[in-house]
Amino acid sequence: MQYQALYQLSRALHQLDEHKILSTAVHQISKMVEASYSCILVFHQDSSIKSLYYTHDSIAWDTLFQHGMAGYVYHSRRMVIIWDIANDPRWCGYTKLPNLPQTGSAIGLPLLRGQNIYGVFVLIHHEIEHFNDERLALLQEAHELITIALNNALDYQVGLTDDMRYLAAFNDAVVPILLTDLQGTIIDLNHQAINLLGFEPNELIGMPISSLHELTDFDLQNIVGERILQTRLKTNNAEIAAMVRVRQLHLHGQDVLEWVEQDITPQMELEQLRRDLTAMVYHDLRGPLQTIHGSIQRLARHLANHEDPSVWNLLQVGLRSTRQLRRMVDSLLDIQRLEEGKAILNRHPTEVRVLLADAVQLVQPLAVEANMRLKFAIQDDLPLVDADVDMIVRVVINLIENAIKYTPAGEIITLGAFHKENQVYIHVKDSGPGIPSEMKQQIFDKFSRVKYHHTPKGIGLGLAFCRLAVQAHGGHIWVESEPGQGSDFIFTLPASLITPQDETADEPTISSKLA
Ligand code: ADP
């Protein structure tokens, strides 16, 4: 019988409407334990009464809260049993009020939401000691059911208000937003998105997001946090450059993806203009630099036998500096070209030893000046590599120049090369300050620099160029280093399919264009 009553109660409470739960609970539980009067008092956060759900309005429930047992339950957050109303001081300070029973028994139960008190359930009977063990057990079970049902309903309401708040923001947003399910089917979009895309809303609902965006390598089911992608967006009459922020949301009880679109055509146009301008500047620098270099070279030939040796030395410094400038300008131009994804056209099967010798010849004077010794660890019989010699020589020079720049004078720098599994490994090892592990990837990004005590001058473009150049050759570049233990910059180049023997037959033509 009791179980049946509890079962019926749990079914009746199986809903998400807070008010229905409370009024159902007060009536059914009152009946279950045969109470004479019952009430659930619900409170605001400031302890004032928010609402009352009762079986009889003839009782002064608010007095019972302000001066009696309901207030006692509220403050103690514990169940209170009053076996005999007439003889229990907790019942009420105003015992003689006509609208409060003077005899009988009562029970008060706290309704909790987490740590906070949400309400108090009071049941009264006109006889003393009415709430015996059996009724108490029943009440405790019922109390648990009502607490769970109530908390579920309140959680649902919080979710609902969040959803409503989100939808208001979604419709008023000044940016275009689309919502899809986790399969990428469009389920909603705001006014801005309709304006941007130029389709009718009903054409878009149900359409896969992939028909608007190219989404290769994009796992819709596993988006953690936020993903930002630069892509093309197909509108009704054009294809535009777009930046999209994608994140997963929980809305109306469903996992959805939010796609915030940004038309970046103006930024792209500006960026292209900036690129074109800088490329033009770099390109135009090359001509005069070439002329200066040629002139100094001719002058050096004329003055080769000048009686004052410092003249020759000065001209050599001039030549070295113009070569360095040319290398910088070429690398800046290459960064632009490689970033645009342009392929390297000038690749030839090249002997690694010759390539390294070219680089060494060009940095040797700098090493001597810095009082550094270059040591070689180059394996014999290395396979050829298909390289743009000029570019890879500049990569090696960059690494050696960095090693010289960041290593204290008087140390040794090792230039090594070996061959493993169809890859040629080239590395430059120094005994400088090393690279902190969190910077090992970043230093290959443009303008990224490590802050040392005395940081030598630089702009952080050298390694960015090295990475782009090596990757364009199908290789990888990385650094192995422990702080304070020096750095070993390593890059790989795939071995050429042409062997040195084939090359000899075809007459070798490897020579440095930098000399
Ligand atoms: P730059 O030397 O002009 O700053 P790079 O791109 O060549 O630019 O190098 C990026 C950063 O990597 C440098 O600023 C420096 O902090 C660090 N770095 C590069 N090579 C070395 C090295 N051999 N030893 C220590 N730090 C280095």
Task: Explain what the structure shows.
With 515 residues, this protein is an alpha+beta fold. The protein has 4 domains: 2-156, 2-Layer Sandwich (Beta-Lactamase), CATH 3.30.450; 165-263, PAS domain (Beta-Lactamase), CATH 3.30.450.20; 267-339; 347-514, Histidine kinase-like ATPase, C-terminal domain (Heat Shock Protein 90). It has 13 helices and 17 strands. The strands form 4 sheets. Strands 2-1-5-4-3 form a 5-stranded antiparallel beta sheet, with helices on both faces. It has a 5-stranded antiparallel beta sheet with strand order 7-6-10-9-8, with helices on both faces. Strand 8 and strand 9 form a beta hairpin. It is elongated, with a radius of gyration of 41 Å. Bound molecules: adenosine-5'-diphosphate. Adenosine-5'-diphosphate binds at residues 402-403, 406, 430, 432-433, 435, 443, 449-450, 458-464, 487.
Largest sheet: 5 strands, antiparallel
Strand content: 15-25%
CATH superfamily of the largest domain: Histidine kinase-like ATPase, C-terminal domain
Total number of distinct structural domains = 4
Question: Order of strands in the sheet with the most strands?
Answer: 2-1-5-4-3
- CATH fold-type name of the largest domain: Heat Shock Protein 90
Structural class: alpha+beta
What's the number of extended β-strand segments? 17
Give start-end ranges of low-pLDDT stretches: 506-515
Radius of gyration: 41 Å
| CATH class annotation of the largest domain | Alpha Beta
Give the N-to-C terminal Cα separation. Answer: 103 Å
The number of helical segments is: 13
Identify every distinct bound molecule in the structure, by name, code or SMILES.
Answer: adenosine-5'-diphosphate
Shape: elongated
Rounded average pLDDT: 88
